[in-house]
Each structure stands twice: as structure tokens, then as C-alpha cells.
Amino acid sequence: MSPNITLILVAATLLGTGVYLLLARSIVRALVGFLLMGNGINILFMVASGPAGDVPILDQGDPDQMADPIPQALVLTAIVITLAMTAFVLSLAHRAWQLGRDDLLEDDEESARIHRRAEENDMSGESTDDADVIAAEFAEEDTGEEER
User: Fold this and answer.
1) What is the pLDDT of residues 57-84, one digit of tens each?
2) Predicted structure pTM score
3) Which one, of 146, 143, 123, lies nearest residue 135 by Cα?
4) Which segments cross the bilayer (predicted)?
5) Does residue 104 sit in helix, strand or coil?
6) Residue 125 contacts by C-beta under 8 Å, 6 or more apart in sequence?
7) Which of 108, 106, 103 is nearest to 32 (CA)?
8) What does the alpha-carbon distance between residue 124 and residue 100 come to, in Å, rounded to a whole number?
9) What percent of the chain stands above pLDDT 70?
10) Is the Cβ–Cβ distance between 1 and 23 less than 8 Å?
């Protein structure tokens, strides 16, 4: 039996759209992308599990015609994990909205510094000059927070 091409296309569309939204800078869009990806993966699990069969209960029905319970268990586990991640990301989005009235993620200064060093192809250990610059940046940040 061949897999249902419609379900495969739906799963591929959900996964593609989910990845696109997950790469957005908005927390809410990333959450929707995560949910779409989770649903697409669940559909792929069910498509990959094969054709529907009898209920997998011992001593009832032909063992050759029983459905495999492992993909069903994986989908149920994925649903629980998706629910927990959704609650966590919603709490992050709510907190970001409370603090900044915006759900866009800001650029991380440490990440920008690492990218600058990678562009300069200087991935060797930090020199003493870099350590002094970093210490000065942290000192400025600490004094700025104390003044607030």
C-alpha cells in the first residue's frame, strides 16, 4: 500500500510554513511556526506508520492485521511536549510584552561580537586587549544598571 500523497503534501506544507515562521523575529510568529511544525511532524508519524489496522489488544483479532502502537505513542508524546513548549513560549511572549510592549527579539550584543570576530577570521583565543575591552563593556553595563 502506498502512502497517502495528500497527507504527505499537507505535512510538507505545514513543515515548510512552520520553518519560515520559526525564523521570524517575532515571538508569536515563532510560536505559530513551532505549532505548525509539530502538527506536520505528527502527520508524518501517522503516514509513516502504515495503513490502519485492528486495535492492538492481546488475544483479540489477527496479529498480522493489528496496527503498530509505537507511532501512536510517539504522536501522543509529541502532543504533550508541544503543549508544554507552547505554554512556555506564551509565557515568554507575555513577559516580553509586559517589559517592552513589543514581541520582537532584540539583537544580542555578545552574539554580534562573536559574529564580528568570525568575519575577521579571528577565532583564536581572546587576546589581553579583547579581555580588557570586554571587561570595560561589562563595567559600563554594571554602572548603567546601578544608576537606574
Assistant:
1) 767 777 777 777 888 889 999 999 999 9
2) 0.64
3) 143
4) 6-23, 30-50, 70-93
5) strand
6) none
7) 103
8) 37
9) 78
10) no
